[in-house]
Amino acid sequence: MALPRLAELAFALLSTDCIAAQGAEATWLGALGRLADDCAASLAPAARGREAAVQALISAWLADPPAPDRALYALAARDGLSLPETLATALACAAELVPMAARSLIWLQHPVGGARPTLGLLASLCERLGEVHALALLAEGPARRSGLVQLEPEERPLCERSVRTPLPLVMALAGYAGRFDGVGDAEGVLPMLPDSTLAAARNQASGLREDGALSGLREDGALVLVLRSAVPGEVRAAALAVAAASGRRPAF
Questions:
Q1: pLDDT category, 210, cuts 50, 70, 90?
Q2: Read out DSSP for 162-193?
Q3: Percent of the chain with pLDDT strictly greater than 70
Q4: Residues 6 or more apart in contact with residue 100 via CB below 8 angstroms
Q5: Where does the pLDDT of residue 194 fall: very low under 50, low under 70, confident under 90, or very high at 90 and above?
Q6: Where are the chain's structural domains?
Q7: 112-143: b (≥16 Cβ within 10 Å) or e
Q8: What is the spatial distance between Cα 69 and Cα 81, in angstroms, rounded to a whole number?
């Protein structure tokens, strides 16, 4: 049986006390709970009870996530995200793209919360998973500092704030382009570059490794290559050549 996505595992744990008679949201949550139970019976037969089942499945997710969550997993590994931050991102993305997820969050958080997960809900969820410092990790961790999650509105107490992931990041984690306003790619016709310039681009691209073996590595870990040209189209073409040779996409 395929491992559920991380957001589905979170909802499965939140569904523990739901009964179908409570409405469509409870029915949807209950189905995810049963899915987690069935999956745990196959992958972690020693787990007893919903909490143990979800904990076992999250451990399995941390070892080998399902295909739809691999981008989130890679991001969490690269940025050193804690489990509360990763769960917050998963639920925030689900709230944007899965209508029943948004409806269920409204239902679960009534009358305080809205369609996005509150920090109070996440703290309660994480406490059941043995993570007792979720509020501090969400307030001070790399996810908030990098802008992956935003805590809104600022005038509310921390536990009552909602977690939002910017839409371009939501789309990127879902496998789409993830375009920010004002940022474009290599659209339009760019000038042809001579072979010598293309060779130089390939040479520069070979140095854009993430192992730190590059003189352009900044203190914050960013790799920097400065391109100069009197012709905007030419420098964009050169940037595109470097990006293509290094397996990346340009963003102008």
A1: low
A2: EEE--HHHHHHHTTS--PPTT---S-S-----
A3: 92
A4: 24, 25, 28
A5: confident
A6: 6-173, 195-245
A7: ebebbbbbbbbbebbeebebeebbebbeebbb
A8: 14
Residue 61: Cβ-neighbour burial (10 angstroms; 0-12, 13-18, 19+): buried
Q: Is 189 left (phi over 0), alpha (psi -120 to 50) or beta?
A: beta
Angle at 154 between CA 148 and CA 158, to 5 degrees: 80
**Nearest-CA neighbor of 201 among 235, 172, 230?**
235
CB atoms near residue 89 (< 10 Å): 24
Task: Give me the helices (H) in the chain, please.
Answer: 6-14, 24-43, 50-63, 70-79, 83-97, 99-109, 119-128, 134-140, 142-146, 167-173, 195-206, 232-245
Full-model pTM: 0.83
**Alpha-carbon gap, residue 36 to 105, rounded angstroms:** 19
Residue with tokens 């500092």: 145
Nearest of 36, 44, 47, 41 to residue 63 by alpha carbon: 44
CA distances from 180 to 121, 144, 235 (A): 29, 18, 22
- Written as one letter, the residue type at 2 is A
pLDDT at 216: 54
